[in-house]
Amino acid sequence: MILKKIIILLVLLVTGFVANAQNTYKNWSDIIRKNGAVWFASVEAQKIAENVLLYQRDIGGWPKNIQMQQELTSQQKKDLIALKKTALETTTDNGATCQEMLFMSRMYAEVKDERYKESFLKGINYLLEAQYANGGWPQFYPLKKGYYTHITYNDDSMVNILNVLKQISERTDFYSIKPSNEIVEKTKKAFNKGIDCILKTQYRQNGVLTAWCAQYDEITLTPAKARAYELPSLSGKESAKITLLLMSIESPSAEISTAVKSAQAWFEKTKITNLEEKRVLNDDGKIIEKKMIVTSNGAPIWARFMELDTNEPFFCDRDGIKKKSLDQIGSERRNGYAWYTDEPKEVLKKYAGWAAKNGVRMETVVTPSKKKEHYFTVAQDGTGDFIKIQEAVNACPSFPYEKVTLFIKNGIYTEKVRIPEWNTHLTLIGESKENTIIAFDDNFAKINSGRNSTFYTYTVLVEGDDFSAFNLTIKNTSGDNGQAIALSVVANRVQISNCLILGNQDTLYLSGENAKQYFKDCYIEGTTDFIFGNATTLFENCTIHSIKDSFITAASTPEGTAFGFVFKNCRLTADPVATAVYLGRPWRIYAKTVFINCDIGNHIRPEGWQNWSKPEAEKKAFYAEYNCKGEGYQPQKRVLWSHQLSKKEAEKYTIENILQDTVPNWFSN
């Protein structure tokens, strides 16, 4: 009887938790993509699902720009029922239909309501039916008069469709609903036709393949016009997602490889690094003014519209007259449209790994030299030049004039890797960051060589200057057993991008005399002082993850150093057990650590910083934040000896200032 009561109580608790799960997102797209499984099992989610079912037309598609979570009146429900048979305004523009299919899939994963499955399958049939014989898709289907009949890559419409079909045709677990074999075969054919259309529409500029336009005539496959200010042009934005889709295809054909190579070369050729966009917002966060500011060595951006034969950017008002600069058009279009984009940066970031994986050799990206001594492949299955990474490092030339690249195929490489100081200009490129893993299990107790044993625990040690690493996991696997370094960097001009750095205590050691180091798009996790050392290091767009209550940073910045550890646009996250984490404490009393524009989770203690029982550090260390957000950002509760930067002070924290070196702009190479 007691056991029965306990079971009933647990059921009630779980049911209540699911029923009361709350959605915290306002945007329909965010509701679909950011909520977890618990929410999709909730009463609130099921209520919204009824709206989504009502909006779906019988043909299988949905209209666009609808906030489907908003409550409907009785009259609105009647109107939607009446519209079902009309197929009015069904489209794939602005993510419509594809995102609603994803919603239904996520609902069905938690609530086995057969209507959700039926809705999803109707969506597939709609996408298949809407495809042209030449492989393209119109913006609206059934066809709507005007430019809507053009094959449209605009706002990634066709790429969204192809990504849906790719998941289904490959029978992945991305969608919870598994169509019949017949439908899977249809999606395979449709996907292949779509890729063929992409290859046929890649624009040739004076005989050279470049990128893609936003729209094409559905008959002639020539560049086409849409709205008055959307003239035929090469697109810096839409071409990015197209290229990434092609790069996602396993064992690509020669035609696909050529298309990707050509697009990458065009992105390199057309990137803009002497302009950056400045936005003025009103109190509601709406853009009221955009200005392009001349800068030096800015982060690369691309124009949305470029001339077909010259790549020259242009801008248009609603009169359709081309202008050469953004400030020459009216404020309504200037501020209400995305004229520049940074999306191609993802192509450039991933290209080296893709090229190496698929045997594509381009001197500008993967192979700095045709000499064999400047490019090696490491593969555990014996298909490369070496089986072990250290063997490949040992074979590299000392103090080379050119960059040396090691491409490392997927596998778990259980070895300690040392990049000696004479192996300069070395680049490690993993086949994929999740599956190219360098791992070892040394820790302080295991080394047992006295008080400095920590520094011998590394999995990877970098001593050679001008080192870079991409698409790797570097891990210390000893567990929570004291000091155990995953990555130790004691070198200058080091770039680590798109990597996972995993460990517990002392995960990442950063040092070197006057050393400047740059981490971008990385995931770094640990427990106590898991980012420590005396280097000047910029972390940009990284996720910093705490495993338990302790300290994130322990800087030992030398006296008189302008910058120490700087975190910009990073996310601070934690395991559920970590609820009281400090941003940092001073390993040495002149420690400097600053967080700018970061999203700080609620695991960070309100006081933020600790002095490590060093009262003098409260006067000599420099701990600061600026314009952060999140539940853990509580500036009014921080220790009094920390700082909240002014806007003017924060403006000094540019990548150029932080990473300034005798080799100019090394971080953009």
TrEMBL record:
This is Pectinesterase. Its EC number is 3.1.1.11. Pathway: Glycan metabolism; pectin degradation; 2-dehydro-3-deoxy-D-gluconate from pectin: step 1/5. PROSITE patterns: PECTINESTERASE_2. PANTHER family: ACYL-COA THIOESTER HYDROLASE YBHC-RELATED, PECTINESTERASE 53-RELATED. The keyword Cytoplasm does not apply. Belongs to the pectinesterase family. InterPro entries: Pectate_lyase, Pectin_lyas_fold, Pectin_lyase_fold/virulence, Pectinesterase_Asp_AS, Pectinesterase_cat. It catalyses: [(1->4)-alpha-D-galacturonosyl methyl ester](n) + n H2O = [(1->4)-alpha-D-galacturonosyl](n) + n methanol + n H(+). It comes from Flavobacterium cupriresistens. The active site is at D529. It comes from the Bacteria. Residues 1-21 form the signal peptide. Keywords: Aspartyl esterase, Hydrolase, Lyase, Signal. One of its GO terms (molecular function) is pectate lyase activity. Residues 377-660 form the Pectinesterase catalytic domain.
